[in-house]
């Protein structure tokens, strides 16, 4: 008798495990007397009978189905194995880990812009994570008709709508479209909420969504860089001077050495003129300050110890012995 029992015994386990597999269904097999259930770390085992959940087992280990599993099943707790027949049941193994997926826009996304009728074209990429969180919905919508399900299946569903969601949340935020990465956190949160709603009916949830980079075509990026340079310098005259100096320093100036020397001389003259203008402004400011100081002395009627005009010590004189400035 013992010989026949061993002959009919089988092992219920996830024997086709892959890291990118979300669930695996052990089915179309008859569980015999003496069968074992093997649950490995990161797996949950769900017993199904006639499409209904009979029991969920989450602790990893080896279990004797007759003595350790059947007593906990909802409608099969009194099941008795026969000599020639076993229990017709299905076991759904679920991968409980969080799946990390890389994503990228399928096409260029044209973000509306008031100064560009065609919009600003962008590309973006990043990552998202998801996991199974509702076994009833998973069985009802997916596992009921499929024997296995993969990360790529979920990725395909998400990326099919991701371009539209990026457009939606970038426009909704209404931020500066040339500095989208500065607002990527708010945009990501909005997209995560929509994606979570998209896969909720499959018994899954999006736990995180991130944007790693947003890129523009080369011509748009050059325009953005040029605009940023203008705003940082603030003075177009200074911007042109800096541009010439940059070209000279980098050796990108295509003119002859004579031309380069002339450009350098012109730059030197311009800088010298600017310095002279700054010096004249400083002198005028100093003179205005002295005049105000002299007027202040005259208003008080008190003779100063030093001439407010030239700085000569005044002594007892009413007029400066050096420049003739009236002191009282």
Task: Give the structure's gist in a few sentences.
The protein has 8 helices and 14 strands. It is of the alpha+beta class.
Report the mean per-residue pLDDT as an integer.
79
What is the topology, as strand order, of the major beta sheet?
6-5-9-2-13
Largest sheet: 5 strands, antiparallel
The share of residues in extended strands comes to 25-35%
Along the chain, the helix and strand elements come as HEEEEEEEHEEEEEHEHHEHHH
Q: What class would the helix/strand composition place it in?
A: alpha+beta
Q: Whole-Å distance between the termini?
A: 134 Å
Q: List unreliable stretches of 5+ residues.
A: 1-8
Describe this structure in words.
With 328 residues, this protein is α+β, with helices and mostly antiparallel strands. 41% of the residues lie in helices and 25% in strands. The chain is built from 8 helices and 14 strands. The chain has helices spanning 2-8, 65-69, 135-143, 151-173, 184-199, 218-233, 236-250, 257-300, and strands at residues 11-12, 21-26, 30-31, 36-39, 43-49, 52-57, 61-64, 87-88, 90-95, 99-104, 109-113, 116-132, 148-150, 204-215. The strands form 4 sheets. Strands 6-5-9-2-13 form a 5-stranded antiparallel β-sheet. A hairpin with a 2-residue loop joins β11 (109-113) and β12. α7 (236-250) packs antiparallel against α8 (257-300). The radius of gyration is 41 Å and the shape is elongated. 20% of the residues are buried.
């Amino acid at each position: 008798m013992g010989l026949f029992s061993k002959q009919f015994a089988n092992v219920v386990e996830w024997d086709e495990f892959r890291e990118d597999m979300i669930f695996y269904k052990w089915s179309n097999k008859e569980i015999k007397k003496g069968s074992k259930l093997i649950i490995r770390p990161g797996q949950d085992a769900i017993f199904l009978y006639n499409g209904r959940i009979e029991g969920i087992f989450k602790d990893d280990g080896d279990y004797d189905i007759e003595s350790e599993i059947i007593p906990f099943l909802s409608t099969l707790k009194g099941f008795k194995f026969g000599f020639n027949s076993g229990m017709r049941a299905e076991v759904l193994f679920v991968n409980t880990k969080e799946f990390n997926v890389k994503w990228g826009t399928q096409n260029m996304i044209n973000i509306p812009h008031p100064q560009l009728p065609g919009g600003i074209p962008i590309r973006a990429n990043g990552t998202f994570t998801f996991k199974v969180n509702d076994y009833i919905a998973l069985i009802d919508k997916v596992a009921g008709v499929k024997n296995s399900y993969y990360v790529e299946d979920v990725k395909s569903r998400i990326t099919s709508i991701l371009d539209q969601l990026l457009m939606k949340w970038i426009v909704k935020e209404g931020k500066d479209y040339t500095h989208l990465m500065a607002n990527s956190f708010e945009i990501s949160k909005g997209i995560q909420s929509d994606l979570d709603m998209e896969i909720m009916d499959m018994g899954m949830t999006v736990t995180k969504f991130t944007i790693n980079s947003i890129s523009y075509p080369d011509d748009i990026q050059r325009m953005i860089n040029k605009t940023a340079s203008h705003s940082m310098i603030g003075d177009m005259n200074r911007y042109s001077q800096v541009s010439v100096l940059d070209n000279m320093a980098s050796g990108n100036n295509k003119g002859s050495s004579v031309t380069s020397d002339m450009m350098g001389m012109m730059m030197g003259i311009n800088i010298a003129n600017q310095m002279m203008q700054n010096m004249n402004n400083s002198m005028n400011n100093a003179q205005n300050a002295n005049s105000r100081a002299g007027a202040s002395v005259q208003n008080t009627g008190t003779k100063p110890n030093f001439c407010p005009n030239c700085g000569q010590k005044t002594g007892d004189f009413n007029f400066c012995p050096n420049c003739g400035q009236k002191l009282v």
